[in-house]
Write a structure and sequence with these properties.
The protein is α+β, with helices and mostly antiparallel strands. It has a domain of 52 residues. The chain has three helices and two strands, in the order αβαβα.
Amino acid sequence: MSDKFFFMGRKTPKPKHESYGFNTKRTQKAGTSQNPLSLSVVSDERKSEIEAILEQHGLLANIEVNAEGVENIIELDGILNKPVTTRFEKTPSRNDPCPCGSKKKYKKCCG
């Protein structure tokens, strides 16, 4: 039988989002004290450069110096080089004044 005709309300309660995979609590932001970045560099000079960059942007990281290893600062690059949404200026509508300064309507001048 359906819930529609014979029963007021729901026979089965609505599922809660926490128990069905919808993540209501996001993980902590990377670079904070609870979730520091893990970086590896080749030399002490490079470590001091990275520490200056981290201090400038207010981030925290665990930096490991490994002379034989490969430098790995991908997490830092990902945070510093976030893509920016491009925004375009709105073109004037037909009856707006023309942006060239002729004091005519856009449809009579440049449109």
